[in-house]
Write a structure and sequence with these properties.
The complex is a heterodimer of chains A (about 400) and B (about 350). Chain A is of the alpha/beta class and about 400 residues long. Chain A has 13 helices and ten strands. Classes of the chains: A alpha/beta (about 400), B alpha/beta (about 350). The structure holds pyridoxal-5'-phosphate.
Chain lengths: ~400, ~350
């Protein structure tokens, strides 16, 4: 079944699945002292070293979490709290297009802990404005607790100028958290070259199980824990370590990094074909995001006059799966904060469809989509936008 | 038949959808996201919260049908919420559920569904559609206590022809039993009676925040004397007795009621119960659900409130204006309410009340 929602999640890599299942069958707690406990601990540490090698950072910088959301929460809340120890630093500078896993903890700190959240604006292509970030820092560099900018956006696929942002943050000794959930496996991540302080990765976007993930934490910055208990990841996180999950994540990260260039090139070719064909077959559509600095597997269209949810349903009925935004915002009515931050209007936002490619995507599937999508858009246009008279007049 | 089942997250729409599946239709579920601002709206309210969306989705899973969320919050804001505020600001008493059926569920949603290839929309309303001489006619539910034909009396016969109300022939109690038997977890979900977009059921407080009120006078309808002042005419409804805070009691020591509201001059008229009593009702924007205009001179029953009394009356005018003469006088009817006209249990049509007379 043609599945074009790889940014939401992707299937497990067969080798990873095999390894995961193998480890699931063993009764062993990596914190136990006996033989099987030590073996389990070894599995976890091997995975940590494997990830360290893949990302080119020291294994001691890596902390296992139960997914990307936890890693982002740990970074944002943990850095914020630990940065209040010697002096009050209320400001959190966060890009306006962050995933909710970063934005919401920041806003929660604002509500509960006296933080001041300042959004770093993005341009029309969804790329952050470095001058604005510079200005925000310059307002008072000593009261910034942390900066958070994602490596690449999950909705429109825009890739952020991470090297420049790292340089800026480093120069002011402000910890920088980077959500690399969408970047890993699609873009080159070499932490020996890029001196960032904090980095979040989620397993299920690269073929590891759901609810596996990690936080990289470096350069002497510390986080206060979010979860307290048995102190299994010393001073950072409590909770019995998911041994099988860590092993699976270790292999998945190694494979994703090893195959990154080849994977990206393949997806990019398919994506470019998709964009080219759809743009010529469907009148009145635009590609949102940055055409150059873009995740290789991301396509994000707005089909004017059609609502994204109509297109999604019409394709779904034919077994073709796409998304209208990020899966997380699919529960309630809310135009995408990412598109809003890019300055698009409401029509533009509600007529958008996200199509994301991944490992299992074939050219046949892409061709199927190219044949079906134009008709779906035409039908959806007949059904119109779910908006009132006022907007209809404006059209 | 390709059926679009509107799932609110409540028990009625769940059983309605289940019955459509049982009848062998190709059923797709949609949940309407209507409220944009969920701040202060926690838990489930039987409609329009993230929890209700989750319940609705679970129902679709159990029934094995596809489920989508359609965001109609823009339309809802404009056609229902803004209308509700404007009506109150004009001193009227609107029914937002009627408006939602008229403008959203059986208009915007139905039209979208038809354009996307569906044949009909099915909802969990308690009402029946029967074919009479080949034409669909709207009837009260067999459960008169839960009957919702009143809030559906704004449907045109075309809209009715594209609608299905699978619950019309069973009672609410039977709906719950059936939900239980089908293993639907919403079986014992409490009912929502309040207005879905008003977070804490405080309609007056909510309206005060939406309407810029100008203070005005409360005047004795009979003597014309000013009794006191008020902070905004929209806070008063014809028939209201409580909350008037009149310091001077009436000369005859009788209780006084709001008998008229004029928001243009910010005047509220009060008087004895006697002045509330009315015998004629005029309404505009008629909708002929039955497909035929009411016949002038015919005897009908009218209803002017959801679950309100059914009153015998005679049609005295039926064109772009409806006028009825009640057999016996009634009281407390406010402009903005929907006048529904019935021939026994069958809905003939409706209009929005503009005036009443004694
Ligand atoms: C950019 C980004 N950050 C964080 C997350 C959350 O990760 P997880 O699903 O592992 O909690 C996602 C996944 O939707 C994402 O795309």
């Amino acid at each position: 079944m043609p599945y074009f929602d790889h940014a939401a999640t992707t299937s497990m890599v067969p080798e990873v699945q095999k390894l995961f299942v193998e480890h699931l069958t063993q009764a062993a707690n990596p914190s136990s002292i006996h033989n099987s406990g030590r073996k389990a601990r070894a599995i976890v540490e091997v995975a940590r070293e494997q990830i360290g090698r893949a990302l080119k950072t020291h294994p001691s910088h890596i902390y296992f979490t139960a997914g990307g959301t936890e890693a982002d929460n740990l970074a944002v809340k943990g850095l914020y709290w630990s940065r209040q120890k010697d002096k009050a630093r209320p400001r959190i500078l966060v890009s306006a297009i962050e995933h909710h896993a970063v934005l919401d903890p920041a806003h929660w700190l604002e509500k509960t802990s006296g933080a001041i959240v300042e959004l770093i604006p993005v341009n029309q292509k969804g790329v952050i404005d470095l001058d604005e970030l510079t200005k925000l820092i310059a307002k008072n560099e000593t009261d910034v607790a942390l900066i958070a900018v994602m490596w690449a956006n999950n909705e429109v696929g825009s890739v952020q100028p991470i090297e420049e942002i790292v340089k800026l943050a480093n120069a002011h000794q402000i910890p920088l958290h980077v959500d690399a959930v969408q970047a890993i496996g699609s873009l080159e991540i070499d932490l020996s070259r890029i001196n960032l302080d904090s980095l979040a990765i989620s397993g299920h976007k690269i073929g590891a199980p759901h609810a596996t993930g990690l936080l990289v934490l470096r350069n002497g910055f510390k986080v206060d824990p979010v979860l307290h208990g048995g102190n299994q990841e010393p001073e950072v996180r409590s909770g019995t370590i998911n041994t099988a999950g860590a092993a699976a994540l270790g292999l998945a990260v190694e494979l994703a990094v090893a195959k990154q260039a080849q994977h990206a090139a393949r997806l990019q070719a398919l994506r470019d074909k998709l964009i080219k064909e759809i743009s010529s077959l469907v009148p009145d559509c635009v590609v949102n995001g940055d055409l150059e600095n873009r995740l290789p597997g991301n396509t994000h269209f707005s089909f004017f006059g059609a609502s994204g949810d109509s297109i999604l349903m019409l394709l779904d009925q034919q077994g073709i799966e796409v998304s209208t935004g990020s899966a997380c915002s699919a529960g309630v009515a809310q135009p995408s904060h990412v598109l809003m931050a890019m300055g698009v209007d409401l029509f533009h936002a509600i007529s958008s469809v996200r199509i994301t490619l991944g490992t299992s995507t074939t050219e046949t599937e892409v061709n199927q989509l190219i044949t079906k999508l134009p008709q779906a858009v035409a039908t959806a246009r007949l059904a119109g936008l779910n908006v009132g008279k006022k907007e209809a007049v404006k059209e | 038949m390709k059926v679009l089942a509107a799932l609110s997250g409540g028990v009625d729409s769940a059983v309605a959808a289940a019955r459509m599946v049982d009848q062998g239709h190709d059923v797709t579920a949609v949940h309407l996201a209507l409220a944009r601002n969920h701040a202060g709206q926690t838990g489930s309210r039987g409609c329009c919260t993230p929890l209700d969306a989750k319940d609705a989705k679970r129902v679709a899973d159990v029934l094995g049908i596809p489920f989508y969320i359609w965001d109609f919050s823009e339309r809802f804001q404009e056609d229902v919420i803004d209308d509700f505020i404007a009506e109150y600001a004009a001193g009227h008493t609107p029914n937002p559920c009627v408006r939602c059926n008229e403008k959203i569920k059986f208009a915007a949603v139905l039209e979208k569904g038809i354009a996307l290839g569906f044949d009909k929309i099915a909802t969990g309303h308690h009402a029946q559609i029967k074919l009479i001489d080949g034409k669909p006619q709207l009837f009260r539910s067999v459960d008169h206590e839960k009957d919702q034909s009143y809030v559906l009396s704004v449907l045109t016969s075309e809209q009715l022809a594209s609608s299905l109300f699978p619950l019309g022939d069973i009672t609410k109690a039977e709906v719950r039993t059936e939900a239980q038997a089908r293993g639907l977890l919403v079986a014992d979900k409490p009912e929502s009676y309040d207005i879905c977009f008003i977070p804490d059921n405080d309609t007056a407080g909510w309206l005060n925040k939406q309407i810029i009120a100008s203070a005005g006078q409360i005047i004795d309808a009979e003597s014309g004397a000013t009794i006191t002042t008020h902070q905004g005419a929209h806070q008063f409804t014809v028939g209201q007795r409580r909350g008037l805070n009149l310091d001077k009691s009436a000369p005859d020591r009788q209780a006084r009621y709001v008998v008229g509201v004029d928001t243009k001059t910010a005047t509220v008229l009060v008087g004895p119960e006697r002045l509330l009593s009315i015998k004629t009702v005029s309404a505009y924007q008629p909708k002929w659900t039955s497909g035929k205009m009411a016949v002038v001179g015919s005897d009908v029953t009218i209803q002017m409130r959801a679950h309100g009394a059914q009153l015998p009356a005679k049609i005295t005018r039926a064109d772009d204006v409806i006028e009825v003469l009640l057999n016996e006088s009634t009281r407390g009817v406010a402009p903005g309410q929907t006048l529904a006209i019935y021939d026994q249990d069958r809905v003939i049509g409706s209009g929005t009340i503009t005036a009443t007379g004694r």
